[in-house]
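User: Could you go from structure to sequence for me? I need the amino acid at each position, not a summary. C-alpha cells:
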C-alpha cells in the first residue's frame, strides 16, 4: 500500500510514519509533504497513492485547498485536533479521521477501514468542497480578529489565528506566533481573553493558549495537567486539577 503523509509538524509526521509501519510493515511511505504549496506541486507531477493521511491546518492554509486545486480521488484520513463539530462533519461526508494525539490503534482502525473508504470515494471533490466551506465558516470570526502590537516604531496587526500563546512575564504581556515571532502587547490577558474568543483558553493567570497550538497534554502531580505546545516554549503551562474538567471540555469543543 502506497501512502502520502501531509503534515507540517516534523515530529508528528515521523510519529505517524513510524506508527503506520509498525501496524503494517509492507506500507510504502511515498513522501511527507509539509505545506499546501508543496503538496499541490507533488500531486500535479506524481501518480496518486492508495491512501492519504493529512493534517487539516497547515502553515500556509487548510489542506482542503490541495484537493480544490488538484483532482484527487484517493481516500483521505484526516488527522485533526479540532472539536466534535468538525468530526461530525467528517463522518457526515464519509471521510475517516484520527484525533490528535493519536496512537497505533487509531492508525490500525483507519487502515482497516481503507477498503470501505476506497469503495465510497470514486470522486471526493464535492465532499471536500463542502468541508472546506464548513471550516472557512468556522474560522471566519477568528480570521477577522487582529491584535495590534508595537514593534520599534511600527504598529503591526497580528491575526488571532496566527497566535499560539499569550503570556505574562515580569508584568508585561507577550504573544508568540506559530512562526515563533515574539511581541509585547499593551493589553492585559483579561481583555485579550474576551477579544480572541473560544479558540483560546486561560490556562491560569499567566497563560492564554490557542487550541491548535497544543501538541499534547500530560498527567502531572496531584491530578493536574501540563500542556505541551507545538512551538518551542520553555515555561511550564500547568492546568490546576480544579480546572481540568473545564479544560478537557474545551479541548473537545464542548
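Assistant: Here is the amino acid at each position, in order:
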Amino acid at each position: 500500500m502506497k501512502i502520502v503523509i501531509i503534515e507540517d509538524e516534523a515530529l508528528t509526521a515521523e510519529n505517524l510514519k513510524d506508527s503506520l509501519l509498525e501496524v503494517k510493515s509492507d506500507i510504502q511511505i511515498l513522501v511527507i509533504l509539509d505545506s499546501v504549496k508543496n503538496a499541490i506541486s507533488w500531486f500535479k507531477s506524481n501518480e496518486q497513492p492508495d491512501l492519504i493521511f493529512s493534517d487539516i491546518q497547515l502553515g500556509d492554509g487548510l489542506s482542503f485547498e490541495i484537493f480544490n486545486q488538484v483532482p484527487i480521488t484517493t481516500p483521505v484520513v484526516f488527522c485533526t485536533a479540532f472539536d466534535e463539530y468538525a468530526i461530525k462533519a467528517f463522518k457526515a461526508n464519509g471521510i475517516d479521521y484520527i484525533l490528535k494525539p493519536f496512537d497505533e490503534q487509531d492508525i490500525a482502525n483507519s487502515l482497516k477501514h481503507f477498503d470501505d473508504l476506497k469503495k465510497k470515494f470514486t470522486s471526493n471533490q464535492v465532499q471536500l468542497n463542502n468541508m472546506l466551506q464548513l471550516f472557512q465558516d468556522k474560522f471566519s470570526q477568528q480570521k477577522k480578529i487582529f491584535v495590534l502590537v508595537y514593534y520599534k516604531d511600527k504598529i503591526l496587526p497580528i491575526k488571532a489565528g496566527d497566535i499560539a500563546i499569550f503570556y505574562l512575564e515580569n508584568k508585561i504581556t507577550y504573544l508568540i506566533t506559530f512562526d515563533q515571532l515574539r511581541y509585547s502587547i499593551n493589553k492585559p490577558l483579561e481583555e485579550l481573553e474576551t477579544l480572541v474568543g473560544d479558540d483560546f483558553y486561560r490556562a491560569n493567570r499567566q497563560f492564554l493558549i490557542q487550541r491548535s497550538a497544543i501538541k499534547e497534554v500530560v498527567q502531572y502531580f496531584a491530578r493536574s495537567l501540563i500542556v505541551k505546545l507545538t512551538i518551542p516554549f520553555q515555561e511550564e503551562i500547568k492546568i490546576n486539577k480544579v480546572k481540568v474538567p473545564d479544560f478537557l471540555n474545551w479541548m473537545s469543543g464542548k
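One structural detail worth keeping in mind: Residues 125-143 form the longest helix (19 residues).
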